[in-house]
């Protein structure tokens, strides 16, 4: 008996050509979609990791200031897959905001630090006293930049941690053998890097200053934290000597600190939840199409199913009859979809990357880039199998309601047919201004279930389109890089910048706001008292007192998330302070950084007493002028209203202009150039190039993600066309009846176009709300906090426009064919 039902299912599939084709299209699109996402996800992940390597190097962790014994121990550790080392020769100041560091790499610098070593001209150093410098550094040094030029540099190398206990200062002459491409990524940190040849450090540095920085990668990523902690403990590495490559670790999904489970873990789980949510919405959209088509098909054949029940057919056999049709179509559609999806994914990625230079992807030419895409998207056989299973699962889930409806049908009711009782509500008589629009509206209300399913399938596609645009930002490895305040840094450590100049900048039409900082450092005398100022703070060995004044803009940026509103007002008014305690550490037998001041206590400086509103410890943000680095000591952070009363200084050491969104940057550059000329000793550092380079590092991923977004959008549009086509095709007889009673082809078009517009508008409204909710979850994955975010107006507008256009297109295609039928053929039409 079951064999005969299998035969019947096959015959039904062949007989119901339109229904079968529409379901087959939905299955192919679903499997294509899962295949494309899987193939693209592998490449996007690889590209995100390459972006992270661009930003921070191909390393997990760097241990600073290691001796030869420690380096040997790391090289022999079986838990490490890579151990490379380099020696920092020293640094030289280019200006108060920017310094040049020279490194001698013992490993292949191109493989570990590709951005640092990218040549524009010449070659990388090989022999002692050879040097390669970035092009922008040569400009800062005032050099011609010709290969073979002699470069004389004053260098300084501190003994430990940058704390000025002892340092080795020397002058060295180098032979310029290479000009590197300018690297602005570290402008935020105030540093740029040059490369010297092997043997240079040994020839210039005393033995006690010849220590190594060691880059490592682990064999087992899952035990990363345990391995690092064990190495720190075993080798006696100080916490300040452990430098995590945060962008790369984030891209790899590796925990890198002990608080990962409370902070980063939450962000990762929210990101995973956002990804799962988007994937489910995609599959649900396709599933709704299958459900809608099957439900209509079953409704049309309700008498046939009633006859089967009357001659002895069981419920399970009717279940089988409906689901078997879907299974037969899945056998055909899933392999086709997976094949097309795999080919489409490679096509999308190759096409997307053709718009940018291959150098962005850290490869030399287009052939290497295409090879990278092929390698990243290959080896996904298991995933394709999973994709097939997921598509099959969702297709069967979509078929179950229709199968259940067919199985539950009463033989007598089904064979007799259903008498539809029309209920009319009392309505006021109104003038019909547009009959076609009214009739289209009544058609939507006539079958609310079908209308709801059609709109819901549209909603899914719109939601996914909006959510994916926000989701692509999660792939940006540069989001792990610290933000900088302002678009420029204007520094004058000597005479300072007056409040009048600050006011003039704030009044500039191109400026949104200006953050301003004042800074004074007081060394200690033999009794450990600060020289030149009185304070109640008891200071320790090797410390100093630093008074930092911040204007309201800088205070808002630094402390808005740390202080309560009333405390913020107290700090701005000059009635309180924030303390940054020194970092406790030991150099030799000497303990420094012992002073600790807690929030809630009162301190006195220059005869004025005020409360401590917040106490910062450990590796919390420190303040300095420009990027001069951190000098260990107590920092008293106050408002610029209080700072002059404590120090007697009213000028500012640093300004950070923040430009408005429509600013004319070239015009503002001239303003800053004029300021530098008026105030001797002023230097200006622009973060524009750093921001641009960071953005370019994400350009590769953004383009690939947009290729995926547009492809998924096309699938969504095809599903919309599929759904609307089904709704119209099932009403051929109704269309013929309207034509018979006098409705013109133009009027018929107008009715169904109004229906399409209604579908699109309702779906756009609901989908935009749902997409915004998804965007909130996506933003939460970046910030670790669920909160309202900016409404994605442009994606919503794009999705609304595409949805309405798709609905109108989906209406026109079948109508064009249907209106060509004769009225008699239309009335008598059966599938």
Question: What does it look like?
Answer:
It is a single chain. With 831 residues, the protein is an alpha+beta fold. It has three domains: 2-50 and 266-419 and 431-479 and 694-828, no CATH class; 58-244, no CATH class; 488-686, no CATH class. It has 26 helices and 21 strands. The strands form three sheets. Strands 1, 2, 3, 4, 5, 6, 7, 8, 9 and 10 form a ten-stranded mixed β-sheet that branches. Strand 17 (602-605) and strand 18 form a beta hairpin. Helix 1 (2-15) crosses helix 11 (315-353), helix 2 (17-56) packs across helix 12 and helix 22 packs parallel to helix 25 (793-818). It is elongated. Mean pLDDT is 78; it is low at 258-271.
Classification by helices and strands: alpha+beta
Total helical segments: 26
How many E-type strands?
21
Q: What shape does the CA trace take? A: elongated
Q: Unreliable runs, pLDDT <50, ≥5 residues? A: 258-271
pLDDT averaged residue by residue: 78
Q: Percent range for helical residues?
A: 40-55%
**What radius of gyration results from the CA coordinates?**
35 Å
What proportion of the residues form beta strands (DSSP E)? 15-25%
- Biggest β-sheet description: 10 strands, mixed
Number of domains: 3
How far from one another are the termini?
27 Å
